[in-house]
Design a protein that fits this description.
The protein is an alpha+beta fold. The protein is 28% helix and 34% strand. It comes from Quercus rubra (Northern red oak).
Amino acid sequence: MADRIHPRDSPPPQPPVPVNDETASESSEPMLTLATHPNPSPDKPVPPPGTYVIHIPKDQVYRVPPPENANRYQALTRKSKTRRRPCCCCLCWSLGILAFLLALIAVSAAIFYLVVKPRAPNYSVDAISVSGLNLTAAAAASSTSLTVSPEFDVTVRADNPNDKIGIYYEPKSSVEIYYDDVSLCNGAVPSFYQPSNNVTVFETALKGNGVVLTSTVKNSLLQAQTQGKVPLLLTVRAPVKIKVGSVKSWTITVKVDCDITVDGLTANAKIFSKDCHYGVKIW
């Protein structure tokens, strides 16, 4: 509401003073007369003259646009609302579809696990035969490096314990044997299909050509062979496809790392210990 405040210093209104013609003619200074409303209305009294201060609330100043800008303000607010609604709808639909897909994947994975009950296959090294690595004390005593071309025949045992899953071993696999981070030889796993509840034993021939052994590696290898404990690392990287019923999966890479200790690098090497770790690369 607007408040009307009469100024404190304004004098109360004075009635007009009548002026006669004689006094007016005798005085040389002009006289100021106060004009009154020609037809005052009793319902709407005329306020006395003075200075008025009108207070307007702040919320009306900042929130309510002036009349000349009201139509423009409404048009702009309508445009902003119409622009926001499609974006909000698209975002809501996207989030809803994403949540539905995640729920569907989770339910499918749970059903697959309960029905198929997949288990990881087991791998182990049954035998190793080595040739081309006959180190002598005279060769090891020299301070120069040594170039060798070793050959390993490795027998691997693969166990598929699943009841409803078959495994296709695809080409382009790799098998390597290391000693002290030096690759001694390499080869591949043969391609074959392993049905469910099956144990397959296969042999793979690994060859090395022009492998350089530094004097440090050469002396360490000779010392380990003299002690009868030569630690080796066998790595297998095999692309496979899983078969469930009549459905095949995409290509999955099987990763097997086996820590093996043999008594020597000979054709009749005996395995003292073996520890294989299994992993997969889904994509």
